[in-house]
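Final report, section 2: Outcomes. Of the targets proposed, Phosphate ABC transporter periplasmic protein is the one most frequently requested by collaborating groups, and we therefore present its record in full.
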Amino acid sequence: MLVFVLLLTPVFDASAETRLTGSGSSYVGPAMNDWQNGANSRGIPVNYSSYSSPAGVNQYGDRTVDFGATEAEVTSLQAAGGGGFSAQNRGYQYVPDVAGAVAVMYNVTDAGGSTVDYLHLDRQTIGRIFSRDITRWSDPAITATNGGKPLPDQPITLLGRTGQSGTTALFYDFIAKSAPAAYNAFVQRNAANGMGNLPDGVRPIQLPTQGPDATWYRLFSDSEQIATAISSKSVPFSIGYDEFAYALRYKAPTAWVQNGAGQYTKPYAENIAAALKHAHLRPDLSQDLDEVYTSATEPGAYPISAYSYVMIPCTNGRDTCRGGYGDQGKTDSVTAFLEYVACDGQVNMSRIGYSPLPPNLAQEMMNASARLTGNPAKQLNAGNCTNPTFQGNLGAGASSPQDPFVTAGIIDGPGKKSAAPSKSGTASAAPSATLGTSTMTAAADDLANGGSKNWREADPAAYDRGGLGGFGGWAVLVLFAVIVTPLAVRGVIRYIKGSS
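The predicted structure is given below as tokens.
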């Protein structure tokens, strides 16, 4: 029996100690940092490097990392010249990991030199500013959304990301929907200035590096630098875009952004969740955010909201991904990490600038693991998952502050707040913080389902069970034990008899 135990022990140790490496999105960087620390403390070794979505997708495709993180889809990167072909060759599945939002951060002082901390902007004005159609802080469009009080007649300096960036693609997708005429003119005049000739419907993944518009851009290599530039006031009369988590971390002022209902909101968790009721999830779980940008009418909905994703292997199609790593240790570590992120990893998300995954998308993390392993997906519920949405809330830090213009009576209040999340843990529940009530209409039910009714009802994978490939790892161990144990025992007995 001693021989049998020694033979089996390395199987467990190898899988438990297999380190995971990932890279990509800076949008999800603060969340990944939180998850990395939590996973490592639980014996799941993970190392994540925050670069950009295109970098993560391509490093994943080149097999230099085990998983990528992105908001930009592979097909959109390919169309925009951002690569993605190696990822397509490797095979992948999108796994949503958290909801987030792009904040509009700024550094502006008024005529008396005092810091402006109340900036309100509608979507069209934001679109025109970042398309260089509005170039001065005294523009009437900005004055109109700020209680009629003009800001100084100073040129607007834009802050953004250098190189290719998923956050840039996400933000300029919003710009394209918010101010299409200004956006189209901006793209056309910068085709030769570093942005490239973009096909219709394809958003830029990088900003101009030369030409007249580039003069008014200050580009930074990562999200941390943008937030630092705003919070330190090192670039006067500037405005930039960045994931809200960085604004919270560096205490950078963020604008109140008008949503489809005419209400001005900030990107706190409850507002992100309300907006993503309008996200249309495709069969591969990638997102269409057009209605989030333009039609999110729930109270508080913040219109520049989006899910982030990890990319893990899928070798033979989305429903038959078993064996994508070709390494049982990697597979075990990835499945443990995904379960951690889906449950314990969501507890802190609202506090650091995100919104936790709703129950149905947390379950999709388990379904993704099941496709890798060929085993039934673990079914999450309030009893076995600490994700706060299973308890009907978004966790600490979810609530948005009161709009100062509402408090001062400059604009009307937002009205009734949206409901808390459902405790439903089914895979067909809504990808939002607010699941429907019994009085919801069929149309509202469709909307709450991400715009795709019954978008994911199928069980994970119906793997074949006939050959050894579908037999399962535990079955192989049992077979091994049945064959080896009697031989080992017989050998020990013979050894004892020979010694005596």
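The longest strand covers residues 93-107.
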